[in-house]
Amino acid sequence: MHEPRHILYIDDDAGLRRLVEKLLVRRGHTVVTAAGGPDGVAAARDGRFDLIAVDHYMPEMDGLATLAELRKLPHCPPIVYVTGSEESRIAVAALKAGAFEYVVKSTGDDFVDLLERAFVHALATVRLQQAKAEAEDALKASNERLQTLLHEVNHRVANSLQIVSNMVGMQARLVPAGPAREALADTERRVLAIAQVHRRLYASDDVQSVAMDEYLTALIAELEETWSSEQAPRDIRLTAEPIKLHAEKAMSLGVIVSELVSNACKYAYGEDQGGEIRVDFRRAGDAGFRLSVEDDGCGFDQSAEPQGTGLGSRLINAMAKALATKVDYKPAPRGVRATLEAAI
């Protein structure tokens, strides 16, 4: 026994209307009938139905036209299309127009059995669609909450890293000039490179990827402010294509750029000598990127002991390993060119 439903049956065949109404009422349903499309649309507009059945062959307004008008109504219930023809094109046209099911018309209980099965299937389809829509809405709401949370986390991490950077900078200013001060200054710069990633994440709608052209622009501006002076200007030129990287890759690349540029600023040119450093970031193939940092300075011997503590070189190698690549150093026309390629 199926659950009782409020049903509208639209058909110009008076005898079949009476038969369908009689048999459906006997099965516990409440039935309203209409003799044609206009009457059926008016009845659907004035009443609330669980299901509607529409005949195809009707004068004045055929089933497809009636279906189109019914679909315009607010809260239109599922519609089962009824046709005396077994032509598949009619069924396909009805389903494309918004019918949930179709039934080939016949006389007797068999037709009503088929009609009722079509009603059950149509209602089950509606429930599945509603459940799908509710699940999608719930997932969307959950994703929005997660996005908000991640924005807040990135905001707080960026602020915390800025505080750490400021503290390191304050400590550096209290230390006499020498290796200790330089080490603290390097630490401050490295923290800022990572903080920039989190600033980009909380300022963007995408909390997982970083627009590298924007990130590198901000990073290079900070580096130029750090290393350039009137006595020894450092002109850091950036060319960057608009490529997005996952946050972890962006951080690794940011540290590499910071170290390479800082090394060029410190060691490529004399203390009172100006110089240019060029940073180029672009696509490499369909799914990769290429970074190069080059200067016109004095060059260096890769077999020689690293200047300073050597921590910068170890950081570059560690970050390159995280990107599943390595940094290659090649002589430029003048100075040094450092390059790497990795997957996006």
Description:
It contains 9 helices and 12 strands. The chain is of the alpha/beta class and 344 residues long. The longest helix is centred in the middle third of the chain and has 66 residues, at 109-174. Strand 1, helix 1 (14-26) and strand 2 form a beta-alpha-beta unit. Helix 2 (37-46) runs parallel beside helix 3 (63-71), helix 5 packs antiparallel against helix 6 and helix 8 (247-268) packs antiparallel against helix 9. Among the domains are: 6-107, Response regulator (Rossmann fold), CATH 3.40.50; 208-344, Heat Shock Protein 90 (2-Layer Sandwich).
How would you concisely characterize the structure shown here?
The protein is an alpha/beta fold and 344 residues long. Among the domains are: 6-107, Response regulator (Rossmann fold, 3-Layer(aba) Sandwich); 208-344, Histidine kinase-like ATPase, C-terminal domain (Heat Shock Protein 90, 2-Layer Sandwich), CATH 3.30.565.10. Helix content is 53%, strand content 19%.
